Amino acid sequence: KSSLKNMVLVLFTITAVSALLVALVNTLTKETIANTEQKNKDLAKLEVLPTFEGEAELEEQTKQIGDFTVGVTKVSANGEVVGYAVEAPSITKSGYADRIYLMVGFVESDGQTTINGIKVLSQKETPGLGANMTKEGNKLELSAVGKNPAEMTFKVKKDDASGSFDSLTGSTISSRAYANALETAYAGYLWAKGELDTSEEAIADAPTGASTTSEVADTPTGATVAEGDYANETEPEAQKGEVTNE
Question: pLDDT digits over 75-131, tens only?
């Protein structure tokens, strides 16, 4: 018999059953999804480093930075170090939609460090604009691959003429976050090598407005490192579809 009471009861039953099914599916697929994500990360570690023969030996370590974790994997083969793969987020600069997560490969030769490869692990930027950072050979990637990170300035040229990064068209905020994630990765690499001074004295002596690896390594989540930080900036209209006013 149709009545308000019966209708409410049926609706409640349907909602409860639907919620139970969603929870069940989530439980059944959670482990599979986590395993898939880990496999993709493991593949990315090798993709950002030079090719080599033999079986890869992975030595992993992590550093907690605020609410974020930077993972550093030392990859060796046949007793020789191939390079370091570093998984890192943008910390002091968020992308237009969310944080940017990168896997960055660092290799050493003749006493010099070079960025061998970069792979975007996670981004939620605007398709056709900020999301272009995932495309092979994009401006951001070309600004860094093959370069010595010690000689780079992790800023986009639009903000600072001395910056090392050409920003993606109409996606300045996304580009800033990408550069910041790469700087975080470099800080993680230096930390793993024991070459990063994260003492309070070193941070206190850093020049005002400077964007240093020490600042990135020890800045709490959500904090800004200097006046002009764009962590909470709203992307201009150009990010939403217009590319003429980059």
Answer: 999 999 999 999 999 998 889 989 999 999 999 999 899 999 999 999 999 999 999
Q: How far apart are CA 107 and CA 10, in angstroms?
A: 63
127-149 burial: b if 16+ Cβ within 10 Å, else e: eebbbbbeeeebbbbebbbeeeb
- Using a 10 angstrom Cβ sphere, with 0-12 exposed, 13-18 middle and 19 or more buried, the burial of residue 45 is buried
List C-alpha distances in Å: 236 to 96, 159, 244.
10, 14, 11
> What is the C-alpha to C-alpha distance for residues 151 and 164, in angstroms, rounded to an integer?
9
DSSP H or E run through 127 = none
Q: Which residues contact 224 (CB under 8 A, 6 or more apart)?
A: 92, 231
Residues of the chain with pLDDT under 50: 199-246
How far is it, in rounded angstroms, from Cα 20 to Cα 238?
43
Strands 101-109 and 112-122: antiparallel
* Cβ pair 119, 43 in contact under 8 A: no
User: What is the CB neighbour count within 10 angstroms for residue 2?
Assistant: 7
